[in-house]
Please model this.
Amino acid sequence: MPKPILTIKNLTKKYGENVIFQHLDLDVNEGDTIVIIGPSGTGKSTLLRCVNLLTRPNEGQIWLDDEEITAKGADEDQVRQHVGMVFQNFLLFNHLTALGNVKLGLTKVKHMSDAQATEKAMHELTRVGLADRANHYPGQLSGGQQQRVGIARALAMDPRVMLFDEPTSALDPELIGEVLEVMRQLALDGMTMLVVTHEMGFAREVADRIIFMEKGYIVEEGSPDEMFNHPKFPRTREFLWKITELYGKKEKDAE
Amino acid sequence: MDLGQFVSYIASGTVYTVGVTLISLPAGLLIGIILALLYVYGGKTAARVLNLYSTIFRGIPPVVLLFILFFAVSKGINLSAFWAGSLSLGVVSSAYQMEIVRGALLSVSGDQMMAARAVGLSRLQAIRYVVIPQAIRLAIPPWSNEAAIIIKDSSLVYALGVPEILRRAQLIGASSQKYLPAYISAAIIYFLLVFITTHLLTLLEKKLAIPSNP
Amino acid sequence: MRKHFLLVVALVLVAAMLVGCTSESSSLLNKIQENKKVIVGTSADYPPYEYLDEAGGITGFDVELMAEIANRMGVELEWVDMPFDSLVAAVSSGKLDMSISCFNYDEERDKTVDFSEAYYTTEDAFVVGSAFTGTITVPEDIANYKVGVQSGTVQDGWLTDNLVTPGLLPEANLSRYERVDQAALDLANGRIDVLMADYVPVQALVAQNPDLQVVFHAELSTGPINIVLPDGDTELKAEIDRIIKELQADGFIDQLAVKYFSE
Model:
């Protein structure tokens, strides 16, 4: 059994007295798509931010490919080259075109030549279906298009793991589909992904494992079949019911 | 003295007005940018010191600083009225410009910084390639305001004896007893200077604007 | 401006101490004679003492007098125009060699600069507008009205010491202006009732403006006018005083007075 690509051990994050989560353990195998669900404010986003060191945990360790990224001397910028992140609010660089957004990391961090960077960037934009919008600015793109550029931007760095922090929560219903489709394809292509989302349809179809977090704890985790059809804990069942109802309605409206 | 001579006497002060502006405004900008970057990214101690700097130089009437520099400080170093005036104005302006740039940086920062770091950019790279380019655009309108203020405040150097527009208007007004025409002429010249400057800056703003769908 | 004047004077004193002011043991006179040039300040907005001529140069009673003094010293004269309030600080801090600008002797000023012997004598005047219906028989009468004055002048000092401080004239009724022409405007539109200023320049004002008239003139705050010199420079003062006496003796000053002061 190959070692997990990502290992999280005993992770704790507090802000003063306020405990976000504690003693979290998680193993992610290469190519896995892990979907994390749960009520808002239970530390799901914070957990993701620990994986790419945007936030430092108070206790615990994280290993990526056998390297402890939480170690004292670790180069954060280096680590982030291997972990891609997609944000709820897209956070595209507003002063750059779609192409410019995707190229920035390639030229400044990976020190590619302009020609190389352009080629790679166009490849990623094509992958998300936006090659024809390469010269548009974020202000000229729809929400769904912006988010796909955001995905291309993260992918361009050839990350080992992709983190998605509620990637569709800020999108109009009609635009959610195009983004989920890109993510689904990414999963099929074998990318290791951690996805925080409320999109149950996506979870059911694409996830290898679903993790339910509440109040800073992992309440339950398992395969989609286990979680949706035979959840062990009433709280899990309760939450999934509520959210499927809500999102089932949403999907109906979007049709 | 006919009208032509009258007005051109006043107008000949323009070279001093422009001169003082062209020294104090860029000086204020250079210092202001450096200090703003230190203020936003330099840590708590730097922020406290710079807050003090801002409070002091925005709190003193510029003309007082002009006097201090010209009469007191330049007992040791010999500064001409023109340079004492321009440099003092530059220092005062730097405090205001620091606040302008700081405001612009803070309007951008935060999330943009986070996204930049997530791609692997270092803090410095993020500031340079992501924050600053966006901050520049945000800073132009308030900076245009500051430029207009400096053009008008340049008249303060009259207190040190620099023969700029306002002083000339005073002199010729008193000497000919034609005060109103003198001050109106001065006002028109200042108006033109400010109008041209702000118009040029608006053009710059349009040129740099990031395209978006209306 | 008056507030700033005191602040600047204080700062100049501090700076003088800080710069470890070994006041130059040699007189400024030596420097002037070596350079063959004297740098003189004036505020050229005060006809007929100092003002602009048709060509935009400086002229006037004080101006011509000073030109002759420089002539008799055998040196060139460089004029520097500055607002009145700045002149004393400029002499005191060495930016100017001396200043002539219808200065009256003033104890406050004497702390930081010296005065030459008087070269002429002036009077104060009270000016009123055509709407004025009151009576002024003695100077103190103006305490009953709204008064205007140029700030930082000896008239300002006189009014403050003699009328405001003893409580005769409420502070709120005394308006200070940067220049006499501003005060004259307010006089004409009734914001103030009485303007106290130097008699001679005010005559030019009144000549231009038929609404205004002088109702009283005497030596109150004014009197002799002097050249302002650097503090403690006895040699320079001696030389200037000597020349002033010469000019008085050979009638130069009288001729100048006729040229500029008679209507």
